[in-house]
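Contributing new records

If you add data, match the layout below exactly. Sequence lines come first and carry their own label; structure lines follow with theirs. Keep one chain per record. Anything else will be rejected by the validation script.
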Amino acid sequence: MLVLEDLHKKYNMLSARIITSYEKQFAQAGLIAKGTVYCLMGLLALMAAFNIVGRYASNTDKDGVFEFVLKQTGGQIIMGLIAFGLICYSIWRGIQSVGDSKNKGNDAKGIFLRARYLFSGLVYGSLALGAIEALVSNRSDSDDKKQEMVSELLTKPFGEWLVGIAAAILLGVGIFQIWYGFSEQYKKLVERVGQSDNTKLLMTAGKLGYVARGIVWLLLAWLFLKAALHANSSKAGDTSKAFDFLQEAAYGSYLLGSVGFGLICYGVFNFVRMRYEKFN
């Protein structure tokens, strides 16, 4: 019995070591896919802002991105690569969280950071599943998952409070993203970048990207808060609904265009991370 337990422990250690040894490859493939998704989402938002080629804010979410990709020449191959990259990204975050490859430790701060990596991995794992579903069915799923989730929460006891808590979490994430951009904390991710004009421009893209991403999270928080206050799940929504809300504001086209440009910048910064971030 002890021999079997020892073999099992050695097998687990060997498996973890093999997976961790490929961390850089998982990370780079994942960051390419993530950057591509954000660049496309930002491009669609820009097109929707000025109604280019009949684009509207209502089809600028992940399903709109998948639909756009599938309509291109070789779209299924591109979609397959995106799905594969998103799976790699999810695995990389799992390595950082469960395997603690960044040596964050087990104190309160370390556990918080590792939980953040795990949450990120789960989010992009879900996005990968959506990409696979779109690839298999050769069409995007137009259902609003966030609205369905809010509708389910509202049926529970204290449902409005649960949706309100979700709104508070989204608000916290949005504020953190904006702070992360303005404080330039993101520069720690790519310390090996040089000091040429081109690389400085790319680092500025990181700031614009994190701020734009934070604004999107804040918009989602506002939609969730409205759903909680009115006990109406139709008030909540995903990125496309957030962009709809933004476009309907004064100077909405310019606001949406600015956020779209920022999301493209965030996508570009993921490519910078892929090239310069120190992994393992």
